[in-house]
Amino acid sequence: MRGFAGMRQPARKYRNVPTAVDGIRFASKREAHRYCELKLLERAGEIKALRLQPRYPLTVNSLHVATYVGDFEYVESKTGRLVTEDSKGVRTRDFINKAKLFHALYGREVQLV
Length: 113
Prior knowledge:
Layout: E1 19-21, E2 24-26, H1 29-43, E3 47-52, E4 55-60, E5 63-69, E6 72-76, E7 82-86, H2 93-106, E8 111-112
Parallel strand pairs: 7-8
Antiparallel strand pairs: 1-2, 3-6, 4-5, 6-7
């Protein structure tokens, strides 16, 4: 992979390829593709209030443990249900633990795409 001034860049740990769409840089092609799908759903009226990288503090007994950053969040138009999505290619132990803590604190599952 070539970077600035033709210098060779190290291989990425999870083989993701950063991709830009609408001037927004996404961590992977998978995430960029999902963004395009969600924009179409929003235009069609299926979803609304699309947000990128929503942040949730994971605090237990007044102790900040971590922050969960999802890829996307939106409201389903028909049901009014708030959905937090993550387009994971690799489910790391860190992600699994944060998703469980998110569920325990916010009462919602992280939807994997």
